[in-house]
Amino acid sequence: MSISAIESVLQQMRATALQTGIAQPAAAAEPAQSGGFAAELRRSLESISTAQTRAYGQAEDFEMGKPGVALNDVMVDLQKANVAFQTGLQVRNRLVAAYQEIMSLPA
Prior knowledge:
The chain has one domain (3-22, 41-103). 74% of the residues lie in helices and 0% in strands. The chain has helices at 3-20, 37-64, 71-103. The radius of gyration is 17 Å and the shape is elongated. It starts with a helix and ends with a helix.
């Protein structure tokens, strides 16, 4: 897997995160965190964790019967968190495959 393929996957992750409302646009991100691929990966993982925490918190609020929490909102947020997690999992799988491919190259 080439660097351009990894960057393509990363760009797809950004677009998906923006569409689902999980992540903020790059202009709104903190400039101190812009540090390349590792920082982008960390931000992606943090946004996945935030989405899951928010969705599970909303589900708990619904279970407790708090007013203003609708079942359809809970289900949508849980699905958004699931899609974000599955996307992160696929990125991890591709990174591992790329690493294994690089390590198997003859020296």
